[in-house]
Amino acid sequence: MKYLAAVAGVALLSACSPQQETHTETAVDAKISYPMTVRGNVTDEYFGTVVADPYRWLEDDRSAETEAWVTAQNAVTFEYLEQIPYRDKIKDRLAELWNYEKVGAPFKEGKYTYFYKNDGLQNQYVVYRTDEEGNTEVFLDPNTFSEDGTTSLATLSFSKDGSLAAYAISEGGSDWRKIIVIDVETKEQLEPTLVDVKFSGISWFGNEGFYYSSYDKPEGSELSAKTDQHKLYYHQLGTDQADDRVVFGGTDAEKHRYVGGQVTEDDRYLIISAAVSTSGNKLFIKDLTNPESELVTVLDHTDSDTYVLDNVGTKLYLVTDLNAPNKRVVTVDAANPQPENWEDFIAETQHVLNPSTGAGYIFAEYMVDAIAKVEQYNYDGERVREIELPGVGSVGGFSAKHEADVVYYTFTNYNTPGTIYAYEPDAGESTVYAESKAQFDSTAYESKQVFYTSKDGTKVPMIITYKKGMELDGTNPTILYGYGGFNISLTPSFSMTNAMWLELGGVYAVANLRGGGEYGKDWHNAGTQMQKQNVFDDFIAAAEYLIAENYTSSGKLAVRGGSNGGLLVGAVMTQRPDLMQVALPAVGVLDMLRYHTFTAGAGWAYDYGTAEDSKEMFEYLYGYSPVHNVESGVHYPATLITTGDHDDRVVPAHSFKFAAELQAKDAGANPQLIRIETNAGHGAGTPVSKTIEQYADIYGFTLWNMGIKELK
Question: Which residue in the list 214, 436, 563, 655 is annotated as catalytic?
């Protein structure tokens, strides 16, 4: 039986290998007739420079004109995609690969052990629980929240004794949430739903109530109007939301764009973080054992990213990059928590630190060239051991409550599906808790880390994954992925969509660009504001490396990125349209002169700067803003822009304008299309069915425009 299964697997693998051949023109190759996009006469003036914004009207996501434009664009795009002969084959195979049971690590709350599980193709993960007798049942099934699976479970938080739970739902992918409070025994809702919650956790204080954050509902469209003053609220159970107390952020002096509150595990302190941008925060602490206690300032500036990792009594353990770009852990007494009183607990090293806690230990995870290394410490600051990991890759987890006996972690890399391990910290032993059931033969593929040289001489790491034995003859379909921003690190991780690309015979390369966090704050800052071009140069150099080393050629190269990575793709394809055959910007920040006027976009100014900051900053942004750098007469790569009509993080107007510019000005024969997912947002909570359809379209579009006309 095993032999038959192996043979079947080989047959399926070979069934989706690309084959290039000469062909006669088909309907899908015919010249596309794009919908007409009306050009308006709106202009803005920046420091004496007048900038036209002819598609400003597409920013109105509630207008009938924009709705009609979206419908017309989707009609053209899907007509094109539907004619790709192997699109359905890719979709069916991806669904087949995706259809296996996926289980998350267990966690204890009260007398139950909870875990997330997906049977295979369920649109959303289901929350199960097991009682002390070993009986397992469904606790929450988000697949029942809406008929089409587009309402997702965003947050789940339990009260101190585990008898109550509050969970947040997202509808249609929006960042606006609703919070529902239930009794865990009966699963019955206990009070009216809290509404209009955004960018928030749910942090319980005992069983009495919880802290959450939100903005006042904006005037105009809730999907695009600017949200600027975040507030921390306390909700007392049994009271109306209208009576919820503003804990922080309600005054002009406390006005910040992002405010969050977290209660320590022992219910002793409320920790408040306040920030005006996505980097840097102020920090405050309140003693919850004394209702009359004042809010104590830990940090009164935003020159660092600092948070409380844990506390033991009045002793605080803080993680900070203040005077430590790669981060360190410090301790301080809560009575005098200012920086002058900090003492190093885990000193800064040459590698970036991301610590976690559980079972009475601190786990110091380091990134060594984007690869994980974990060391275990006790609360006296003594290094216990380096934890032996299953291989070279990424880990997630190493987090549990103080009283836990075991902590769980997940290990993965680009060609290894995630496996959950149970780690006993006293013995220092790891055992497999849940092995991945993915039908993917990791041994058939390999990942290789290389270091290439960027334009200014900087060495940049990149991991390239492909089928073993692949010939480096410059003909391999390749996707180069990047992000390069917001201190976010791209560490090796497995995804079934990437596995599908590998099975198709593709190369998948991920470059760790400046702007990310792989080498700490200095690496991040090297890709921000007036140094943002470094990020684009790093990505261009990665593409040139792949071509020079014969992994691929310009005619077989696609570039892909989402959100800030969508900006990356937009900037690189307008600067070097000759470099790639296909461009795949997803939910991208593409209008760099106006990004900060939508929703919480002004919070990205640390990375980007804004067009109002100075003449120099305006000219810099104007010089690379993708929407403003599409030129007439240029042959652009085949482009499939993807976005969601409910994206209130990076509003779809960015993508709408970019598509309109490309369609109006491109001089070549390559398609310039936009795929607009309806009832979907920035990505989180997207139903599995929609994800499978989207990637079938992306891969079909990519391979077709690389000249691959049928799959073996």
Answer: 563
pLDDT of residue 20: 40
Residues 202 and 230: their CA atoms lie apart, in Å, by 15
Can you give the pLDDT at residue 419? 94
C-alpha angle 143/699/551, rounded to 5°?
135
Q: Record the pTM.
A: 0.90
CA distance 365 to 355: 5
Is 9's pLDDT higher than 70?
A: no
What one-character DSSP code corresponds to residue 516? S
Closest alpha carbon to 312 in 331, 284, 293, 328: 331
Query: How far apart are alpha carbons 479 and 476 in whole angstroms?
Result: 10
Tokens (6 digits) for 331: 């301790």
CB atoms within 10 A of CB 58: 24
Is 494 within 8 Å of 417 (Cβ atoms)? yes
Is residue 446 scored above 80 in pLDDT?
yes
Whether residue 646 contacts residue 609, with contact meaning beta carbons closer than 8 Å, is answered with no
For tokens 């290439």, the residue is 452
Helix (H, G, I), strand (E, B) or coil at 180: strand
Given this model, what pLDDT does residue 23 score?
A: 37
Question: How far is Cα 303 from Cα 443, in angstroms, rounded to an integer?
Answer: 46
67 has pLDDT over 80: yes
Catalytic residue status for 33: no
| Beta partners for residue 331, in sequence order | 317, 343
Question: What is the DSSP code string of 642-680?
Answer: EEETT--SS-THHHHHHHHHHHHH--SSS-EEEEEETT-
Residue in 230, 256, 524, 682 annotated catalytic: 682
Unique residue bearing structure tokens 């690969």: 97
- Enter the DSSP assignment of 116: E
| 563 is a catalytic site residue | yes
Dihedral over Cα of 518, 523, 529, 530: its sign: negative
Tokens describing residue 156: 């789940």
Number of neighbours of residue 416 by Cβ within 10 angstroms:
23
- β 416-424/18-20 pair status: unpaired
At a CB cut-off of 8 Å and minimum separation 6, what does 577 contact? 634, 635, 636, 637
Provide the 3-class DSSP secondary structure of residue 486: coil
- Alpha-carbon separation of residue 710 from 21, 248, 273, 497, 647 (angstroms): 8, 59, 54, 20, 34
Looking at residue 632, the DSSP 8-state letter turns out to be T
Backbone angles phi, psi at 430, to 5 degrees: -110, 140
Ramachandran angles phi, psi of 446, nearest 5°: -140, 155
Tell me what pLDDT residue 2 has: 29
- Is residue 707 packed enough to be buried (19+ CB in 10 Å), middle (13-18) or exposed (0-12)? middle
Q: How many C-beta neighbours within 10 Å does residue 616 have?
A: 11
Question: Which residue is it, tokens 């969050």?
Answer: 260
